[in-house]
Amino acid sequence: MHPNRQTALGLTVAVAVVAAALVGCERGTSTGGGSSAPGPTTAGCPAVLAGAQAAVQRAMKTNPAWHGPTRGPRAVPGKSIVYVAQTMTNPGVAGAAKGVREAARALGWNVRVIDGQGTPAGIQAAFSQALALQPSGIVIGGFDPKLTSQQVAKANARHIPLIGWHAVDSPGPSKDPELFSNITTRVRNVAKISADWVITHAHGHAGVVVFTDASIPFARNKSELIKKGLATCDGVRLLAEENIPIPDTSSRTPQQVSSLLSRFRDRWTYSVAINDVYFADAAPALRAAGKKGAGAPFNIGAGDGDPSAFQRINSRQFQAATVPEPLSQQGWQILDEFNRAFSGEPPSGYVAPVHISTAANSGGATTWDPPGYRAAYLNIWGK
Protein backbone atom coordinates (compact mmCIF):
# COMPACT_ATOMS: atom_id res chain seq x y z
CA MET A 1 0.00 0.00 0.00
CA HIS A 2 1.26 3.42 -0.83
CA PRO A 3 1.39 6.29 1.62
CA ASN A 4 -1.78 8.07 0.58
CA ARG A 5 -3.60 4.89 1.19
CA GLN A 6 -0.63 3.65 3.21
CA THR A 7 -2.09 3.44 0.21
CA ALA A 8 -4.17 2.34 1.46
CA LEU A 9 -3.99 2.39 1.81
CA GLY A 10 -6.49 2.51 4.34
CA LEU A 11 -11.38 -2.96 12.56
CA THR A 12 -14.09 -4.11 15.55
CA VAL A 13 -16.14 -4.38 18.40
CA ALA A 14 -19.17 -5.93 19.96
CA VAL A 15 -22.23 -3.73 20.35
CA ALA A 16 -21.38 -2.85 23.94
CA VAL A 17 -18.11 -1.23 22.93
CA VAL A 18 -18.88 0.18 19.49
CA ALA A 19 -18.93 3.77 20.70
CA ALA A 20 -15.59 3.47 22.45
CA ALA A 21 -13.91 1.61 19.60
CA LEU A 22 -14.95 4.11 16.97
CA VAL A 23 -13.26 6.99 18.78
CA GLY A 24 -10.27 8.15 16.73
CA CYS A 25 -6.75 7.58 18.00
CA GLU A 26 -4.07 10.16 18.44
CA ARG A 27 -0.79 9.65 16.63
CA GLY A 28 1.13 6.73 18.09
CA THR A 29 -1.48 5.67 20.61
CA SER A 30 -3.45 2.56 21.47
CA THR A 31 -7.10 2.16 22.36
CA GLY A 32 -8.51 -0.86 24.12
CA GLY A 33 -11.88 -2.53 23.97
CA GLY A 34 -13.63 -5.48 25.52
CA SER A 35 -12.27 -8.98 25.24
CA SER A 36 -13.38 -12.55 25.45
CA ALA A 37 -11.78 -15.92 24.95
CA PRO A 38 -12.59 -17.28 21.49
CA GLY A 39 -14.92 -20.23 21.26
CA PRO A 40 -13.57 -22.74 18.74
CA THR A 41 -16.82 -24.31 17.56
CA THR A 42 -19.97 -22.32 18.34
CA ALA A 43 -20.65 -19.33 16.15
CA GLY A 44 -21.19 -16.03 17.94
CA CYS A 45 -23.16 -14.58 15.03
CA PRO A 46 -24.69 -17.35 12.89
CA ALA A 47 -26.34 -15.14 10.26
CA VAL A 48 -23.34 -12.83 9.92
CA LEU A 49 -21.00 -15.83 9.80
CA ALA A 50 -22.98 -17.41 6.96
CA GLY A 51 -22.79 -14.22 4.90
CA ALA A 52 -19.09 -13.78 5.65
CA GLN A 53 -18.34 -17.36 4.63
CA ALA A 54 -20.10 -16.88 1.28
CA ALA A 55 -18.23 -13.63 0.61
CA VAL A 56 -14.87 -15.17 1.50
CA GLN A 57 -15.53 -18.17 -0.71
CA ARG A 58 -16.18 -15.86 -3.67
CA ALA A 59 -13.10 -13.77 -2.93
CA MET A 60 -10.88 -16.85 -2.72
CA LYS A 61 -11.55 -17.90 -6.31
CA THR A 62 -8.35 -17.97 -8.36
CA ASN A 63 -9.88 -18.20 -11.83
CA PRO A 64 -12.60 -15.54 -11.87
CA ALA A 65 -14.30 -14.59 -15.11
CA TRP A 66 -13.26 -11.27 -16.64
CA HIS A 67 -15.93 -8.66 -15.92
CA GLY A 68 -13.92 -5.70 -17.15
CA PRO A 69 -14.35 -3.79 -20.40
CA THR A 70 -14.68 -5.70 -23.67
CA ARG A 71 -15.26 -2.71 -25.93
CA GLY A 72 -13.39 0.51 -26.48
CA PRO A 73 -11.33 2.51 -28.96
CA ARG A 74 -8.58 0.99 -31.08
CA ALA A 75 -5.05 1.82 -30.01
CA VAL A 76 -3.99 5.38 -30.71
CA PRO A 77 -0.40 5.21 -32.02
CA GLY A 78 2.71 7.01 -30.91
CA LYS A 79 1.83 8.11 -27.40
CA SER A 80 4.25 8.78 -24.54
CA ILE A 81 3.44 8.28 -20.86
CA VAL A 82 5.36 9.36 -17.75
CA TYR A 83 4.72 7.40 -14.55
CA VAL A 84 5.54 9.61 -11.58
CA ALA A 85 6.14 7.15 -8.73
CA GLN A 86 5.78 8.02 -5.06
CA THR A 87 8.73 5.68 -4.54
CA MET A 88 9.77 2.62 -6.46
CA THR A 89 10.69 0.95 -3.18
CA ASN A 90 6.95 0.66 -2.51
CA PRO A 91 6.02 -2.75 -3.98
CA GLY A 92 2.50 -1.61 -4.90
CA VAL A 93 3.74 1.42 -6.81
CA ALA A 94 6.43 -0.65 -8.51
CA GLY A 95 3.99 -3.44 -9.38
CA ALA A 96 1.58 -1.06 -11.08
CA ALA A 97 4.49 0.54 -12.96
CA LYS A 98 5.53 -2.89 -14.20
CA GLY A 99 2.03 -3.44 -15.57
CA VAL A 100 2.11 -0.04 -17.29
CA ARG A 101 5.39 -0.89 -18.99
CA GLU A 102 4.11 -4.27 -20.14
CA ALA A 103 0.93 -2.76 -21.59
CA ALA A 104 2.93 0.01 -23.28
CA ARG A 105 4.98 -2.57 -25.17
CA ALA A 106 1.74 -4.09 -26.46
CA LEU A 107 0.47 -0.67 -27.55
CA GLY A 108 3.76 0.50 -29.01
CA TRP A 109 3.89 3.48 -26.65
CA ASN A 110 6.85 4.93 -24.80
CA VAL A 111 6.86 4.93 -20.98
CA ARG A 112 9.25 6.62 -18.61
CA VAL A 113 9.17 6.10 -14.85
CA ILE A 114 10.43 8.92 -12.61
CA ASP A 115 11.00 8.03 -8.96
CA GLY A 116 9.86 10.61 -6.40
CA GLN A 117 12.00 8.93 -3.72
CA GLY A 118 9.16 9.02 -1.19
CA THR A 119 9.51 12.67 -0.12
CA PRO A 120 7.30 15.67 -0.96
CA ALA A 121 10.24 17.52 -2.49
CA GLY A 122 11.26 14.49 -4.53
CA ILE A 123 7.73 13.88 -5.81
CA GLN A 124 7.32 17.53 -6.77
CA ALA A 125 10.64 17.47 -8.61
CA ALA A 126 9.66 14.24 -10.40
CA PHE A 127 6.34 15.73 -11.51
CA SER A 128 8.07 18.89 -12.74
CA GLN A 129 10.46 16.72 -14.72
CA ALA A 130 7.50 14.85 -16.17
CA LEU A 131 5.91 18.10 -17.35
CA ALA A 132 9.17 19.17 -18.96
CA LEU A 133 9.08 16.02 -21.10
CA GLN A 134 5.74 17.15 -22.59
CA PRO A 135 4.22 13.65 -22.51
CA SER A 136 0.83 12.59 -23.84
CA GLY A 137 -0.25 11.59 -20.33
CA ILE A 138 1.01 11.40 -16.75
CA VAL A 139 0.35 8.75 -14.10
CA ILE A 140 0.13 9.87 -10.47
CA GLY A 141 1.59 6.73 -8.96
CA GLY A 142 0.63 6.27 -5.33
CA PHE A 143 0.73 9.77 -3.87
CA ASP A 144 -1.75 12.49 -2.92
CA PRO A 145 -2.07 14.97 -5.82
CA LYS A 146 -2.32 17.74 -3.22
CA LEU A 147 1.44 17.32 -2.78
CA THR A 148 1.87 18.50 -6.36
CA SER A 149 -1.07 20.87 -6.74
CA GLN A 150 0.93 23.38 -8.81
CA GLN A 151 2.14 20.70 -11.22
CA VAL A 152 -1.35 19.18 -11.45
CA ALA A 153 -2.75 22.62 -12.34
CA LYS A 154 -0.12 23.02 -15.06
CA ALA A 155 -0.95 19.61 -16.52
CA ASN A 156 -4.65 20.42 -16.49
CA ALA A 157 -3.99 23.76 -18.20
CA ARG A 158 -2.00 21.99 -20.91
CA HIS A 159 -4.79 19.39 -21.31
CA ILE A 160 -2.45 16.54 -20.39
CA PRO A 161 -4.65 13.70 -19.09
CA LEU A 162 -3.82 12.59 -15.57
CA ILE A 163 -4.62 9.13 -14.29
CA GLY A 164 -4.04 8.17 -10.68
CA TRP A 165 -3.08 4.86 -9.17
CA HIS A 166 -4.29 4.99 -5.54
CA ALA A 167 -4.10 8.78 -5.82
CA VAL A 168 -7.48 9.53 -4.23
CA ASP A 169 -9.89 7.55 -2.08
CA SER A 170 -12.37 6.47 -4.74
CA PRO A 171 -12.01 4.77 -8.13
CA GLY A 172 -13.03 6.55 -11.32
CA PRO A 173 -12.93 10.19 -12.44
CA SER A 174 -12.10 12.97 -10.00
CA LYS A 175 -12.98 16.65 -10.27
CA ASP A 176 -10.83 17.92 -7.42
CA PRO A 177 -8.08 17.10 -8.19
CA GLU A 178 -8.89 16.83 -11.88
CA LEU A 179 -8.10 13.25 -12.90
CA PHE A 180 -9.44 11.42 -15.93
CA SER A 181 -9.65 8.38 -13.67
CA ASN A 182 -8.20 6.88 -10.51
CA ILE A 183 -7.39 3.16 -10.45
CA THR A 184 -7.95 1.35 -7.17
CA THR A 185 -10.20 -1.21 -5.57
CA ARG A 186 -13.01 0.18 -3.42
CA VAL A 187 -11.79 0.69 0.14
CA ARG A 188 -15.15 -0.30 1.64
CA ASN A 189 -14.97 -3.64 -0.18
CA VAL A 190 -11.39 -4.25 0.98
CA ALA A 191 -12.40 -3.42 4.54
CA LYS A 192 -15.47 -5.63 4.47
CA ILE A 193 -13.75 -8.70 3.04
CA SER A 194 -10.94 -8.35 5.61
CA ALA A 195 -13.51 -8.38 8.40
CA ASP A 196 -15.39 -11.24 6.73
CA TRP A 197 -12.20 -13.31 6.61
CA VAL A 198 -11.60 -12.85 10.35
CA ILE A 199 -15.21 -13.74 11.19
CA THR A 200 -15.05 -16.80 8.93
CA HIS A 201 -11.63 -18.05 10.01
CA ALA A 202 -12.50 -17.54 13.68
CA HIS A 203 -15.94 -19.17 13.37
CA GLY A 204 -17.47 -16.03 14.87
CA HIS A 205 -15.23 -15.75 17.97
CA ALA A 206 -12.08 -13.60 17.98
CA GLY A 207 -10.04 -11.15 19.99
CA VAL A 208 -8.74 -8.66 17.45
CA VAL A 209 -6.00 -6.04 17.30
CA VAL A 210 -6.16 -3.45 14.52
CA PHE A 211 -3.07 -1.70 13.16
CA THR A 212 -3.58 1.61 11.42
CA ASP A 213 -1.99 4.96 10.62
CA ALA A 214 -4.35 7.69 11.81
CA SER A 215 -2.18 10.39 10.24
CA ILE A 216 -3.38 9.27 6.78
CA PRO A 217 -7.09 9.95 6.19
CA PHE A 218 -7.38 7.06 3.71
CA ALA A 219 -5.87 4.60 6.19
CA ARG A 220 -7.94 5.92 9.09
CA ASN A 221 -11.13 5.55 7.03
CA LYS A 222 -10.17 2.00 6.07
CA SER A 223 -9.59 0.94 9.66
CA GLU A 224 -12.90 2.50 10.75
CA LEU A 225 -14.68 0.51 8.04
CA ILE A 226 -12.93 -2.68 9.10
CA LYS A 227 -13.96 -2.13 12.71
CA LYS A 228 -17.56 -1.61 11.65
CA GLY A 229 -17.45 -4.85 9.67
CA LEU A 230 -16.08 -6.82 12.59
CA ALA A 231 -18.58 -5.20 14.95
CA THR A 232 -21.41 -6.92 13.10
CA CYS A 233 -20.42 -10.17 14.84
CA ASP A 234 -21.24 -10.34 18.55
CA GLY A 235 -18.50 -12.90 19.13
CA VAL A 236 -15.74 -10.56 17.98
CA ARG A 237 -14.02 -8.25 20.46
CA LEU A 238 -11.70 -5.36 19.73
CA LEU A 239 -8.77 -5.73 22.09
CA ALA A 240 -6.84 -2.69 20.89
CA GLU A 241 -6.32 -0.37 17.97
CA GLU A 242 -2.67 0.45 17.47
CA ASN A 243 -1.95 3.73 15.71
CA ILE A 244 1.54 3.40 14.27
CA PRO A 245 2.49 5.71 11.39
CA ILE A 246 3.74 3.69 8.43
CA PRO A 247 7.18 5.38 8.39
CA ASP A 248 7.59 4.28 12.02
CA THR A 249 6.55 0.65 11.65
CA SER A 250 10.03 -0.83 11.86
CA SER A 251 10.91 1.05 15.03
CA ARG A 252 7.53 1.01 16.76
CA THR A 253 5.75 -2.23 15.85
CA PRO A 254 8.01 -4.75 17.67
CA GLN A 255 7.69 -2.89 20.96
CA GLN A 256 3.93 -2.50 20.58
CA VAL A 257 3.50 -6.18 19.74
CA SER A 258 5.44 -7.18 22.85
CA SER A 259 3.21 -4.91 24.92
CA LEU A 260 0.07 -6.39 23.35
CA LEU A 261 1.22 -9.93 24.08
CA SER A 262 1.85 -8.97 27.70
CA ARG A 263 -1.58 -7.35 28.03
CA PHE A 264 -3.78 -9.86 26.22
CA ARG A 265 -1.80 -13.10 26.06
CA ASP A 266 -3.89 -15.83 24.39
CA ARG A 267 -6.95 -13.59 24.09
CA TRP A 268 -5.24 -11.93 21.11
CA THR A 269 -6.17 -14.32 18.30
CA TYR A 270 -6.44 -12.12 15.17
CA SER A 271 -4.98 -8.96 13.69
CA VAL A 272 -6.02 -6.76 10.78
CA ALA A 273 -3.65 -4.11 9.40
CA ILE A 274 -4.21 -1.43 6.82
CA ASN A 275 -0.90 -2.44 5.25
CA ASP A 276 1.00 -5.74 5.13
CA VAL A 277 4.18 -4.02 6.33
CA TYR A 278 3.03 -4.15 9.95
CA PHE A 279 3.34 -7.93 9.96
CA ALA A 280 6.86 -7.86 8.58
CA ASP A 281 7.80 -5.84 11.65
CA ALA A 282 5.58 -7.81 14.05
CA ALA A 283 7.13 -11.17 13.16
CA PRO A 284 10.35 -10.84 15.20
CA ALA A 285 8.45 -9.93 18.37
CA LEU A 286 5.95 -12.76 17.89
CA ARG A 287 8.79 -15.20 17.25
CA ALA A 288 10.69 -13.99 20.33
CA ALA A 289 7.58 -14.57 22.43
CA GLY A 290 7.48 -18.19 21.32
CA LYS A 291 4.50 -17.80 19.00
CA LYS A 292 4.24 -20.23 16.10
CA GLY A 293 4.31 -18.78 12.60
CA ALA A 294 1.21 -20.73 11.59
CA GLY A 295 -0.69 -20.05 14.82
CA ALA A 296 -2.50 -17.25 16.59
CA PRO A 297 -2.60 -14.36 16.26
CA PHE A 298 -3.74 -14.97 12.69
CA ASN A 299 -2.93 -11.87 10.64
CA ILE A 300 -4.55 -10.42 7.53
CA GLY A 301 -3.30 -7.40 5.62
CA ALA A 302 -5.90 -5.13 4.04
CA GLY A 303 -3.22 -3.72 1.78
CA ASP A 304 -1.61 -4.16 -1.63
CA GLY A 305 -0.41 -7.73 -1.24
CA ASP A 306 3.27 -7.13 -1.89
CA PRO A 307 5.67 -10.01 -2.61
CA SER A 308 7.01 -10.12 0.95
CA ALA A 309 3.47 -10.56 2.27
CA PHE A 310 2.95 -13.49 -0.09
CA GLN A 311 6.25 -14.98 1.08
CA ARG A 312 5.13 -14.80 4.73
CA ILE A 313 1.76 -16.29 3.81
CA ASN A 314 3.18 -19.10 1.69
CA SER A 315 5.72 -20.04 4.35
CA ARG A 316 3.12 -19.64 7.13
CA GLN A 317 5.23 -17.18 9.02
CA PHE A 318 3.07 -14.76 11.01
CA GLN A 319 0.70 -13.78 8.22
CA ALA A 320 -2.26 -15.88 7.14
CA ALA A 321 -3.89 -13.77 4.42
CA THR A 322 -3.80 -10.58 2.39
CA VAL A 323 -6.28 -8.66 0.26
CA PRO A 324 -4.01 -7.95 -2.71
CA GLU A 325 -4.44 -5.47 -5.51
CA PRO A 326 -4.12 -6.93 -9.04
CA LEU A 327 -1.15 -4.67 -9.70
CA SER A 328 -0.25 -5.73 -13.24
CA GLN A 329 -3.90 -5.69 -14.30
CA GLN A 330 -4.23 -2.18 -12.91
CA GLY A 331 -1.21 -1.11 -14.95
CA TRP A 332 -2.93 -2.38 -18.10
CA GLN A 333 -6.12 -0.59 -17.11
CA ILE A 334 -4.23 2.68 -16.67
CA LEU A 335 -3.10 2.57 -20.30
CA ASP A 336 -6.54 1.54 -21.51
CA GLU A 337 -7.98 4.57 -19.72
CA PHE A 338 -5.37 6.80 -21.37
CA ASN A 339 -6.32 5.35 -24.75
CA ARG A 340 -9.94 6.27 -24.06
CA ALA A 341 -8.90 9.79 -23.06
CA PHE A 342 -6.84 10.23 -26.23
CA SER A 343 -9.82 9.00 -28.28
CA GLY A 344 -12.27 11.43 -26.70
CA GLU A 345 -14.20 8.69 -24.93
CA PRO A 346 -15.19 8.49 -21.24
CA PRO A 347 -13.37 6.25 -18.76
CA SER A 348 -14.37 2.60 -18.64
CA GLY A 349 -15.73 2.70 -15.09
CA TYR A 350 -14.19 -0.69 -14.31
CA VAL A 351 -13.21 -1.46 -10.71
CA ALA A 352 -11.45 -4.72 -9.93
CA PRO A 353 -13.22 -6.96 -7.39
CA VAL A 354 -11.55 -7.84 -4.11
CA HIS A 355 -9.57 -11.04 -3.73
CA ILE A 356 -8.14 -12.90 -0.74
CA SER A 357 -4.84 -14.76 -1.00
CA THR A 358 -3.80 -17.45 1.48
CA ALA A 359 -1.37 -20.35 1.41
CA ALA A 360 -4.28 -22.53 0.32
CA ASN A 361 -5.01 -20.65 -2.92
CA SER A 362 -1.88 -18.69 -3.85
CA GLY A 363 -0.21 -21.61 -5.59
CA GLY A 364 3.13 -20.30 -4.34
CA ALA A 365 2.76 -17.05 -6.32
CA THR A 366 4.06 -13.76 -4.94
CA THR A 367 1.48 -11.54 -6.65
CA TRP A 368 -2.21 -11.67 -7.52
CA ASP A 369 -2.42 -11.74 -11.31
CA PRO A 370 -5.97 -12.69 -12.35
CA PRO A 371 -6.63 -14.19 -15.77
CA GLY A 372 -8.36 -12.70 -18.78
CA TYR A 373 -7.43 -9.04 -18.78
CA ARG A 374 -4.50 -9.16 -21.21
CA ALA A 375 -6.53 -10.87 -23.94
CA ALA A 376 -9.47 -8.52 -23.34
CA TYR A 377 -7.39 -5.36 -23.64
CA LEU A 378 -5.45 -6.61 -26.65
CA ASN A 379 -8.74 -7.36 -28.37
CA ILE A 380 -10.06 -3.88 -27.56
CA TRP A 381 -6.91 -2.26 -28.89
CA GLY A 382 -6.87 -4.34 -32.07
CA LYS A 383 -3.55 -5.92 -31.21
From TrEMBL:
Q: Name one GO cellular component term.
A: cell envelope
Q: Where does the Periplasmic binding protein domain lie?
A: 81-337
Where's it found, cell-wise?
A: Cell envelope
Which stretches are annotated as coiled coil? none
Q: Name one GO molecular function term.
A: carbohydrate binding
The signal peptide stretch is none
Which Pfam families does UniProt cross-reference here?
Answer: Peripla_BP_4
Q: Which UniProt keywords apply?
A: Signal
User: Which superkingdom heads the taxonomic lineage of this protein's source?
Assistant: Bacteria
What InterPro entries does the record point to?
Peripla_BP_I (IPR028082), SBP_2_dom (IPR025997)
Family (UniProt)? Belongs to the bacterial solute-binding protein 2 family.
Q: What is this protein called?
A: Periplasmic binding protein domain-containing protein
In its UniProt entry, the species of origin is given as Streptomyces lydicamycinicus
